[in-house]
Amino acid sequence: xxxxxxxxxxxxxxxxxxxxxxxxxxxxxxxxxxxxxxxxxxxxxxxxxxxxxxxxxxxxxxxxxxxxxxxxxxxxxxxxxxxxxxxxxxxxxxxxxxxxxxxxxxxxxxxxxxxxxxxxxxxxxxxxxxxxxxxxxxxxxxxxxxxxxxxxxxxxxxxxxxxxxxxxxxxxxxx
Length: 175
Description:
The protein has a 7-stranded mixed beta sheet, with helices on both faces. It has a two-stranded antiparallel sheet with strand order 3-4. It has a two-stranded parallel ribbon with strand order 8-9. The chain has 6 helices and 11 strands. The two termini are about 15 Å apart. The longest helix has 14 residues, at about 160-170. The protein is of the alpha/beta class. It has a single domain (about 5-170), classed as 3-Layer(aba) Sandwich (Rossmann fold), CATH 3.40.50.880. The radius of gyration is 14 Å and the shape is globular. It has helices spanning about 20-30, 75-80, 85-95, 110-115, 130-135, 160-170; strands at about 5-10, 35-40, 45, 50-55, 55-60, 70, 100-105, 120, 140, 145, 150-155. A hairpin with a 2-residue loop joins strand 10 (about 145) and strand 11.
């Protein structure tokens, strides 16, 4: 699938899960999309395993209109991301505009904070299942769950299915 002309945001904060950030960054660049790493304001972030990432932009400087999709990696970063109003607003606004919103592992915490789960099917890392259910999601324990423009996955082992499903959703989306 070719994604030329598509623009994907990947959110970053400290303690991100390495594979859940870098696998999508490289996969979507490989497919021809422009990928922008969006942070909460710091000049750089460190993963759970010490790997650095430098954001290309801050959430305060971008809008939902700039992107076709947003990807929220897991690790403990989403707990930090949801403390930034601009990051939560970006996710909420993209969802409201029908753009692809994808979260893996603990990324579901951002979906809870953005209040986009009511009545939607979703999955996540098992430790935050109750958070998603309490936010109104219909939890499914599968490697990837797509409900319209919402794509969710559980853990790093699910990344191939997660990225395939995002690619499919982006290829179906109107530019």
